From TrEMBL:
Keyword set, alphabetical order: Lyase, Membrane, Transmembrane, Transmembrane helix
Recorded GO MF terms: lyase activity
Domain of life of the organism encoding this protein: Archaea
UniProt key word Chaperone: no
Ranges that cross the membrane: 12-32, 44-63, 70-93, 113-135, 147-170, 182-203
Gene behind the chain: cruF
Pfam families xrefs: Caroten_synth
Chain segments annotated as coiled-coil in the UniProt record: none
EC numbers on record: 4.2.1.161
Phylogenetic classification of the source organism: Archaea, Methanobacteriati, Methanobacteriota, Stenosarchaea group, Halobacteria
Full protein name: Bisanhydrobacterioruberin hydratase
Source species of the chain: Haloplanus litoreus
């Protein structure tokens, strides 16, 4: 079954990693600009389905590594993500005062049910990217962990301005980073630190590196992230956020996994 899933992703890499985010960016911008009529505009099932499709390379790539220890860790992190979002919506801590402005699908106590699908893969992508780019230096926790935490926060510098511009959520008090307050990024430092520490503790890094040797598509979800959110930010004139997205694109190229016809080049 794992082999079949791997082949399915390999055969559809361009569609999943490029076509889906480009089409998604167009549909999201069209929804925000009122060019799509209800119920097509920001249709929550389409949002969740599209996200799952773009996440599929990461999910399939990580699947063989999820033993009982990792499954318990990921489940705990899903609960943590719900808990901190629940607190944030009601108290403004740690992200600042915000609220969801569109329907993101079914909710649990006001928190979107799909939250783990939106958040946890971002941390996994950052973790994989840092492992590949740091090489041997990633063996040192004092290098690895701050790098991954910083990468997660930098990803939010791309995500949050684009999401605010689209109207996914809003900060009533505004903020200096394209309407996003600095408290949001401070909150992401906390969220990223907890999540990265747990993932680092429950994942078998040796098995993960072995898997990355043969799974060239594991970071394709980050390709989708860069294309979708950089395009959205560029459309709305959030050029700083778009530039950070471009830096992630440069980092992805540095992993030597995205040459035509997208082979895995061993060192």
């Amino acid at each position: 079954m794992q082999g079949r899933l791997d082949d399915l992703i390999r055969e559809n890499r361009f569609t999943v990693a490029v076509v889906f985010p480009v089409v998604g960016a167009v549909l999201l911008v069209a929804s925000a600009e009122g060019l799509l009529p209800p119920p097509l505009a920001f249709e929550p099932f389409m949002l969740l389905l599209g996200t799952l499709v773009m996440r599929s390379p990461l999910l399939v790539g990580m699947a063989p590594l999820i033993d009982r220890r990792a499954a318990l860790g990921v489940t705990a992190l899903a609960g943590y993500a719900y808990a901190i979002e629940f607190v944030g919506l009601r108290t403004g801590l740690p992200y600042g005062d915000f609220h969801y402005a569109i329907d993101l699908g079914p909710t649990v106590a006001g928190v979107p049910l799909g939250l783990p699908v939106f958040f946890l893969p971002l941390v996994c992508n950052a973790y994989l990217l840092c492992l590949l780019l740091l090489g041997g230096r990633a063996r040192a926790a004092q290098v690895r962990l701050p790098a991954v935490i910083g990468t997660v926060v930098a990803m939010d510098v791309v995500l949050d301005p684009g999401a605010v511009a689209l109207g996914f959520w809003a900060y009533p008090g505004g903020g200096p980073v394209y309407g996003v307050p600095l408290s949001n990024f401070a909150g992401w430092v906390l969220s990223a630190t907890v999540t990265v520490l747990v993932l680092d503790a429950v994942l078998d890094r040796t098995a993960l590196l072995d898997r990355l040797e043969t799974c060239e598509f594991a970071l394709d979800d980050m390709v989708s992230f860069v294309l979708l959110w950089s395009a959205v930010n560029a459309y709305f004139g959030n050029w700083g956020a778009a530039a950070v997205g471009g830096l992630f694109g440069v980092g992805l190229l540095g992993t030597d996994r995205f040459d035509v016809p997208l082979p895995l080049r061993r060192p």
